[in-house]
Amino acid sequence: MRIVKLTKESKSNILENLLKRSPNSYGKFESAVADILANVKSRGDDALFEYTRNFDKADINPSNIVVTQEEIDEAYSLVDDKLLDVIRKALVNIRDYHEKQKQYSWFDSKPDGTILGQKVTALSRVGVYVPGGKAAYPSSVLMNVMPAKVAGVEQIVMCTPPDKEGKVYPTTLVAAKEAGVDVIYKVGGAQAIAAMAYGTASVPKVDKIVGPGNIYVALAKKAVFGYVSIDSVAGPSEIMVIADETANPRFVAADLLSQAEHDEMASAILVTTSEELAKKVSAQIDEFLKELSRSEIISKSLENYGYILVADSIDEAIEVANDIASEHLEIVTKDPFNVMTKIKNAGAIFLGEYSSEPLGDYFAGPNHVLPTNGTAKFFSPLSVDDFIKKSSIISYSREALELIHNDIETFAKAEHLTAHANSIHVRFEGDK
């Protein structure tokens, strides 16, 4: 893994390189996605089933698009009891963490008859997209469904692509059932996003779409924003580790590789004040690559977007961490909590050598749906807040409005909005 001295120039080059991974850079796919969206919007189920036959080689129709209870029962029989137990334990942790995020309506009344407040309402129907393809991701099911469940969403539907026999991954079905998904549809890709955004005879329109997917899914979500809400347009996974000379190089190397194995676009960066640690981590990575199953993907990821940066000080390391704003940030230093107080931009922060990133992916409880590609500067992890909306409450008595009606009329007239001013004035036009 390349070792680079951290300078203003090297930081600038790295930031430029990382931004190439943004879904905003994939314009060449947008026309294909736009065609799929338009086709599903105009032709509904007919287009949906055509795309499923073409892309997934599955014969899906109105009679079998919905996963049945029998299929869910079969999935339970195929999932190892030990994995089911772990899913249930993780679900409890995720639910308990998100319970602490709940917001409630509030009202503030004053003696003059003024009542101001905020009404919190859960979204009515949410769509969760779960990838199929080469792997199953039950952890993503839990992370996307549980905050919606805690928020009180009335109906949670899920779309996931079937295999050519029309089957869905058993672990996906079990995780969905455990988390409380109401209906599961056998459809994937950009066509599934279109179905949830516009609605078809088989798939209902939702209020919000969440969940990861390939570039076609990401661009489809971006395109339908406005018809529905979305969580984000997620880019490839990324990890940054801030470490000093006290860090265990074997642990650090293992954690960097845990994200590099996602795909060839993933990014893994170590920022350290110790040149000796940098060399040891690089050597340990070479050793791990000899034994890890996805070593080819990891190697390409590290070649494209992997760096070991040697900084002159922890403050310099913190500065570059805030500039890059990584999805996952591990702090493995003498005093990680002190370093954490200076971090402004990160999706999730892991403190100490026993808080490795996969702990957050699977089990601890905080959501693993995190901002990527520097968007941690202004976005937050998926949370209960993503599944509620807030309405402002305003109630004035005549006496309360009388005290300030002239002020409002003055403001409205200053903006040349005389109908606004008149709306207030008519209530007191008989007064002297």
From TrEMBL:
The keyword Transmembrane does not apply. The keyword Methyltransferase does not apply. The active site is at residues 327-328. Pfam families: Histidinol_dh (PF00815). NAD(+) binds at residues 129, 191, 214. It is an enzyme of class 1 (oxidoreductase). Pathway: Amino-acid biosynthesis; L-histidine biosynthesis; L-histidine from 5-phospho-alpha-D-ribose 1-diphosphate: step 9/9. Its cofactor is Zn(2+). It catalyses: L-histidinol + 2 NAD(+) + H2O = L-histidine + 2 NADH + 3 H(+). InterPro entries: Ald_DH/histidinol_DH, Histidinol_DH_CS, Histidinol_DH_monofunct, Hstdl_DH. Keywords: Amino-acid biosynthesis, Histidine biosynthesis, Metal-binding, NAD, Oxidoreductase, Zinc. It comes from the Bacteria. Its EC number is 1.1.1.23. Signal peptide: none annotated. GO terms for molecular function: histidinol dehydrogenase activity. Substrate binds at residues 237, 259, 262, 328, 361, 415, 420. Zn(2+) binds at residues 259, 262, 361, 420. Binds 1 zinc ion per subunit. Catalyzes the sequential NAD-dependent oxidations of L-histidinol to L-histidinaldehyde and then to L-histidine. This is Histidinol dehydrogenase. It comes from Lachnospira hominis (ex Liu et al. 2021).
